Amino acid sequence: MLFLAAILQETATQPNIEQAQKMAMAVLAIMPFILLIGLAVIILPFWFICKKAGFSPWLSLLNIVPFGSLILWYVLAFADWKVMPVPPPSYAPTFPPQPPYPQG
């Protein structure tokens, strides 16, 4: 953007429209990749959080919808998580006996 502003300032009377169009096309070519990376950065952690909470991981796609992220935060905050408790060990560990206290 700064480069575009410099080009437009350079020719104060007649801006170079052709060069500005080329720059705009370059920005529009890169923008989908930036958008996909941004969505992956947001959706991927929510995918794992929903899966660990016992919800469908597809709920993480609510982040694409406007205010969907806010809805997902409230769902995760106030819903009962279907997390399995840790099972007790199948055997009781045996501890070594305490050494005798010194007589003295």
Explain what the structure shows:
The structure is a single chain. By secondary structure, the protein is mainly α. The protein has one domain. Helix content is 55%, strand content 0%. The chain has three helices and no strands. It starts with a helix and ends in a 26-residue tail after the last helix.
> Outline, from the CA principal axes?
elongated
The domain count comes to 1
Order of helices and strands: HHH
Q: What is the count of DSSP helices, taking H or I runs of 4+ residues? A: 3
Contiguous low-pLDDT stretches (5 residues minimum) are none
Mean pLDDT: 84
Strand content: under 5%
What is the SS-derived class? mainly alpha
What is the CA-based Rg, rounded?
Answer: 30 Å
Report the helical percentage.
40-55%
- Roughly how many Å apart are the termini? 85 Å
Biggest beta sheet attributes: none
Compact overview of the structure:
This protein has 104 residues and is mainly alpha-helical. The chain is built from three helices and no strands.
Which keywords apply here?
55% helix, 104 residues, 3 helices, mainly alpha
Topology diagram in text:
Layout: H1 2-10, H2 17-53, H3 68-78
